[in-house]
Amino acid sequence: MGTTSRGVFLQTDSAWLVFLSWEPWRGPLTVNLDGRLEALDVRDPVLLESGEIRLGQHRILLPIREVWEPAPPPGIRSTAQERRERARALLEQVRCSGRVSALEDLLDGTAPLQAESLLGMGPGLTPSGDDLLSGALLARARRSCADAPPESLLAAARRRTTTLASNLLELAARGQADERLVNLADHVNTGIPCDHSFLDWGAHSGVDALLGMALEERLVWEGP
């Protein structure tokens, strides 16, 4: 689908994306490579075979036994107020470093926020509104007592936002995400240490996801 400074996106016939990454961070869509792939062209043919990907002149072996899964959530209970305070405190820390979400003004309100109204809000492969929702969904899913989001939200995402954002929303609803965001969600939920590596998740996506965790209790999930 395209190349970035951090890796290559491949789109499959099933509408799921695969990210070939030369960074160390693991995730449910990510295949971590030992080094950067050079001399790539978006017109290069891609072939997925048993145990390997062929991309142009490159042959990438897939070690099936090394598939990454996030660890089970810490078994620590917290209140909605505690989670909100942890997320807001972290937002204040990152604001001091110059990282601010484009949707931060939402923090000033008190009215409920309709989740579907945020789908596709903002530019990019993962618009800010979708990153916000992914953060909220992930935090909810990492608490075993939280209700699952309505299927109608995920169905609307498939129609109204980018393929990558839709993929990430669906995974977040299952409690799956890049390991940096999983650590962030577990920090907000339980207070375990957070290493701030989530700031490297996209240009602003990590901060947007944190904002979603701060606003989680105000989001309204419509549908059956």
Structural write-up:
Helix content is 33%, strand content 14%. With 224 residues, it is of the alpha/beta class. The protein folds into two domains: 65 residues, no CATH class; 141 residues, no CATH class. The strands form three sheets. A four-stranded mixed beta sheet has the order 1-2-3-4, with helices on one face. A three-stranded antiparallel beta sheet has the order 5-6-7, with no helix packed on it. It has a two-stranded parallel sheet with strand order 8-9. Strand 2 and strand 3 form a beta hairpin. It is globular, with a radius of gyration of 18 Å. The two termini are 34 Å apart. The mean pLDDT is 90.
Strand adjacency order, main sheet: 1-2-3-4
Number of domains: 2
Structural class, from helix and strand content?
Answer: alpha/beta
**Number of β-strand runs:** 9
Return residue spans where pLDDT drops below 50 for at least 5 consecutive residues: none
User: What's the main sheet like?
Assistant: 4 strands, mixed
The proportion of residues in beta strands is 5-15%
Please compute the radius of gyration using only Cα atoms.
18 Å
Order of H and E elements: EEEEEEEHEHHHHHE
- Give the overall silhouette: globular
